[in-house]
Write a structure and sequence with these properties.
By secondary structure, this protein is mainly α. The chain has a domain of 69 residues: Orthogonal Bundle (10k-s Protein, Hypothetical Protein A, Chain A). It contains 5 helices and no strands. Helix 3 packs across helix 4 and helix 4 packs across helix 5. The N and C termini lie far apart (70 Å).
């Protein structure tokens, strides 16, 4: 077996094992529910509205498929969440949701 073939096989095996490792790695849930209040307060303010939108509308069933509008979340919910997070910075956003409603 020549050196080029050996190197090619080694590179292919390394690439394949990297693919399998990332595919079977422990998946961590990345929903805002697990985000702490401190992480929320440290975010870029432009990112707060999408997170607040998710928190406010998650597990909420309104009649007729309604939801809380983006503008309302931006002007009302974000300040409420921020204020609640200042009181309990180590709480997770999923835990403070009932206090917002």
């Amino acid at each position: 077996m020549n050196i080029k073939a050996s190197i090619s096989i080694i590179i292919a095996a390394a690439a394949l094992s990297t693919t399998f490792n990332s595919a079977f790695a422990a998946q961590q849930e990345t929903t805002p529910q697990n985000m702490t209040c401190q992480e929320f307060m440290d975010m870029n303010p432009k990112s707060m509205t999408p997170i607040a939108f998710w928190v406010v509308n998650r597990n909420t069933d309104f009649k007729g498929g309604d939801y809380v509008h983006w503008h309302e979340v931006e002007t009302v919910a974000v300040p409420k969440i921020f204020k609640q997070c200042q009181k309990t910075p180590h709480a997770k956003l999923g835990e403070i949701t009932p206090a917002l409603k």
